[in-house]
Amino acid sequence: MIQLELRPQPSATMAYATPILAVVLTMIFGGLLFALLGKDPLQAIITIFWEPIFGEHSFYYRPQLLVKGAPLVLIAVGLAVGFKAGIWNIGAEGQYIVGAICAAAMGLAFYPTESIFIFPLMVLAGAFGGLVWAMIPGVLKVKFGTNEILVSLMLVYVAEQLLASVSLGLLKNPEGFGFPGSRNLQQYASAHNTEIIANTGMHWGVVAALIAVIFSHVLFTRHRLGFAIRVTGEAPRAARFGGVNPSQIILFCLGMSGVLAGLAGMFEVAGPAGQISIDFNVGYGFTAIIVAFLGRLNPIGIVFASLLMALTYIGGDIAQSQLGLPAAAIQVFQGMLLFFLLALDLLTNYRLRISNVERKS
Amino acid sequence: MKLSHLLAAAALAASFAGAAIADGHGKTKVGFVYVGPVGDGGWTYEHDKGRLAVEKEFGDSVETVFVESVPEGPDSERVMTQMALGGADLIFTTSFGYMNPTINVASKFPDVKFEHATGYKRADNVSTYSARFYEGRAIQGHIAGNMTKSNIVGYIGSYPIPEVIRGINSAYIHAAKVNPDVEFKIIWAYTWFDPAKEADAAKVLIEQGADVILQHTDSTAPQAAAQEAGNVVTFGQASDMGQYAPFPRVSSIIDDWAPYYIARTKAVMDGTWESIDTWDGIGAGMVGIGEISDAVPADVKAEALALKAAIADGSYHAFTGPLKKQDGSDWLADGETADDGTLAGMSFYVEGIEGDIPQ
Lengths: 361, 359
Description:
The complex is a heterodimer. By secondary structure, chain A is mainly α. Chain A has helices at 12-36, 41-49, 51-54, 58-84, 92-110, 118-144, 148-168, 204-222, 224-234, 236-241, 246-270, 284-294, 299-323, 327-349, and strands at residues 2-6, 195-197, 202-203, 350-354. Chain A has a domain at 68-302. Chain A is 70% helix and 4% strand. In chain A, the strands form two sheets. Chain A has a two-stranded antiparallel sheet. In chain A, strands 2-3 form a two-stranded antiparallel sheet. In chain A, strand 2 (195-197) and strand 3 form a beta hairpin. In chain A, helix 1 (12-36) packs across helix 2 (41-49). Chain A is globular and about 75 Å long. The two termini of chain A are 13 Å apart. Chain B is α/β, with parallel strands linked by helices. Chain B folds into two domains: 2-131, 3-Layer(aba) Sandwich (Rossmann fold), CATH 3.40.50; 133-255 and 288-344, Response regulator (Rossmann fold, 3-Layer(aba) Sandwich), CATH 3.40.50. Chain B is 41% helix and 19% strand. Chain B is built from eleven helices and 14 strands. In chain B, the strands form three sheets. Chain B has a six-stranded parallel β-sheet with strand order 2-1-3-4-5-11, with helices on both faces. A six-stranded mixed β-sheet of chain B has the order 7-6-8-9-10-12, sandwiched between helices. At the A-B interface, helix 4, helix 7 and helix 13 of A face helix 1, strand 2 and helix 3 of B.
């Protein structure tokens, strides 16, 4: 009979081991799933995890890991700040959209003027857009005690409608023959988030992501505010007695994640995506939630988690076209990862004990 | 800095080119990029039928690959690049939002041919193709105008883009021709495929008194909602949706990409492929009209089939004057037909349709 026993202290070893264990279990059960679909499981796993990094065409895929990973890092780092304090911003997708809209609007307002000031202004606009969108649940929570999970999530749908509206109206390309979508920022030099070194995937968003990681790391290891955030999450009463102002923490955490999500949207719309369109958002804001937990809410962990998620997307697409795996199977595979991670989380706080005594119920 | 850019770009270009040539296979490899799942029962399903037709036609001399549910944007660019690197000779990108990615990738792989559906940007190795769905809408409109008893026709629009607006106008013109009292209620779903949203839209339209529903979205959810309501007529969209025949589905517009896909694949095999812009309709077989069921009175069915024949042989154009725009200004004089340029960028309703196109 296997029993769960509460650990006196959460296990540090397990905290690091479970993400790896989760990946391994995902590979095993994912492989099983692929086998049931009639595909060679080993080949599928190799295609997903090996091909993009070491395969024949890795010269193209490796930079793509950065392109796909950078927005995830930016958003997840911001979310992790809030999650540590027990503030659940589920609406990063909305903040990402609004940041992108504001940034694109700023850039297009200057079209076709060329100036080195346009790009920095767009960065500010993107951060501002994300901030405003995150402040709505923030202020509502502080003033009226609303639930930030619901408000931030619902605002994603509002943001999506806003996106559709500006794609069809305000930001529509006047030379686009009536089709929705803004001008292509990739063809507007001053607004283009170009690769800093060609063909490396290294655009300004990657740089911003790295800065965010360092900033967040310092915040949590060196700064009083980081400590206050942690205490608020782990022991809210103690934090209050310790003089931490919960409203400030709420606004800071939501604001921070909003700014970073807005920046992610900005770098995406000015770079890889190139334009505001109805389908601009592809779910980075939601995937980043998985990434934040997979990375143990730790900035460095988030970098690895983002690259891993990016890998499953890129490898997943390769597996689709090379092996004919359905897209749904890849999605299940990604879902498994979060499932196993959360399930194994149990092992951090509990341990398994095998006892011989049959208990009567 | 400049030089290193240049060198890196040259190195990449060389490796791209090398990848394409090194893969010296005998088979012609054809890639398909889909926006939805192949099982959507509508848009993507029909494109995939086209792919299967290519496989059937050419057998062992062709290999097809596809990736489904690819988001429009950087992800699609990566998928296309991956197909090109994987040795594809011809790549069909089957959604409007793939336009810029297709052009971007095509410029890196000059030896690979690309075909982009429903867009307007071409290049030496990028063709565009689309179907004149509005011809099918004319026939739907004719049937809808005859079938409605409440004189309210519901229309589920996806996005207010020219293609969809064209369809609404065409359907309305032909519905109003047989039933001047007909009124169109239009709901924008802002999605191509979302069964839940489409079902909601259908239910709202039914509640507002619509007893005919036309849809420009791809799932069968509106069909199911109409079936539940019991007395509401629908039409299959993109695919026949024959599982809802004979009622509520009384007919359908079927996208038939197979002949085009086969012809283009053949052109690549023969080395005769050229960049072209194709916009075919009922006449060329790219737009099919699903069987008109017995729920439609025989005389209406006969008229509809006559209309179809007239459109197919070119003796009748779905947009023939006299027609006015919604604001009352003149558009087409008596007997005048719309030119393709105006149709391609259509962003206005014709006279009689109420409401505004969302901006």
